[in-house]
Design goal:
Layout: E1 6-10, H1 14-24, E2 29-35, E3 51-58, E4 61-67, E5 79-84, H2 87-98, E6 110-112, E7 118-123, H3 134-144, H4 152-160, E8 161-162, E9 165-175, H5 179-187, H6 189-195, E10 202-208, E11 215-221, E12 227-238, E13 242-247, E14 254-263, E15 266-275, H7 278-284, H8 288-305
Parallel strand pairs: 1-4, 5-7
Antiparallel strand pairs: 2-3, 3-4, 6-7, 8-9, 9-15, 10-11, 11-12, 12-13, 13-14, 14-15
Helix pairs in contact: 3-4
């Protein structure tokens, strides 16, 4: 079955709107343009030869733009969601789509463009922020409500930080693989080297002794080539449900506790970082929870490409 096609109703500016949308999104194109024929229908008066329908695609998704007349208008009851992997993507789409739109229609990631069409510009997987405990959900909502454009760092920080445990950040995700598969990816040095770290980072392992008390020493290499020295030690290894790692460097000293538990559709991965100094925890909240999401993305990609057997 062919995919559903969304039809967008315009008065006479459908051609302008389509040209704009195709310019905004990669992998987009105009497929076909149909013009009004000679017709004695009252709704077609004076439109002979004008653009009637444009078939186009945005990111491969099919759309129709219909220059149907002034009778109908867009409303916020229907909107298009753009899920963004980075804050840079959010910033980009917010800037280009909001230009010329109604500033009063901007709230919590929603905007109305200059053609009256509504969009939601949101971090990919934002719904996961509301799948934790009630207190964390409330913190995320309180952080989001004053925002127009969504800012990833404070939203993820609100989910990860609890005032009751000021030295701890806690991230979690349900991953569609078994605890055994995830634990294998966490404890196999060859696999760890492929996915460990935020997006764009690589690893140079010197030592990786996966046993209680074993050392794990490596450089994490940033996208710009900068090397970040890591000295860690495995404290607890309980297959396939728990792993405790001590980060030994004076900068960002912490204990990382990873726990895995069965859930419908896969495994709940809980990732808790306990810093020696609460002030240090507060300092890293600006980036660590977002980086953890990138780590989880890379772990899922590793599991998809190299299944557990």
């Amino acid at each position: 079955m062919d995919p559903f096609v969304t039809c967008l109703w315009f008065d006479r500016n459908g051609e302008e709107a389509v040209a704009f949308y195709v310019s905004v999104f990669p992998d987009s194109r105009i497929v076909e343009t149909t013009r009004y024929p000679d017709s004695d229908h009252p709704a077609h008066t004076g439109r002979s030869g004008e653009v009637m329908v444009i078939r186009f695609e945005l990111r491969g998704q099919p759309f129709l733009a219909l220059n149907g007349g002034p009778q109908f208008h867009f409303s916020e009851s229907v909107s298009f969601v753009i899920e963004c992997a980075t804050q840079e993507e959010i910033d980009h789409y917010w800037e280009v789509l909001s230009e010329g739109g109604d500033p009063e229609a901007q709230q919590c990631g929603w905007l109305r463009d200059r053609f009256g069409l509504s969009w939601q510009i949101a971090p990919k997987g934002i719904a996961r922020l509301f799948q934790s405990d009630a207190a964390a959900n409330q913190r995320v909502m309180q952080a989001m409500t004053p925002m127009k454009k969504l800012e990833m760092a404070p939203l993820y920080a609100a989910a990860a930080f609890s005032p009751d445990r000021p030295s701890v950040t806690r991230s979690m995700r349900t991953i569609p693989f078994s605890p055994e598969a995830i634990f294998a990816a966490l404890t196999d040095p060859e696999r760890l080297a492929r996915w460990w770290g935020p997006s764009g980072f690589t690893n140079d392992f010197r030592t990786c002794e996966v046993r209680p008390g074993g050392l794990w020493e490596f450089d994490m290499i940033g996208p710009d080539g900068t090397r970040y020295r890591n000295e860690t030690r495995f404290l607890e290894i309980e297959a396939p449900q728990k792993l405790v790692i001590e980060h030994l460097r004076e900068v960002h000293y912490f204990l990382l506790t990873v726990t895995l538990s069965h859930r419908d559709g896969g495994t709940l991965l809980e990732w808790e970082m306990d810093f020696l100094d609460p002030a240090e925890c507060e300092k890293v909240l600006a980036y660590v929870p977002v980086c953890n999401e990138e780590v989880f993305d890379r772990l899922e990609d590793e599991l998809s490409r190299f299944p557990f057997s």
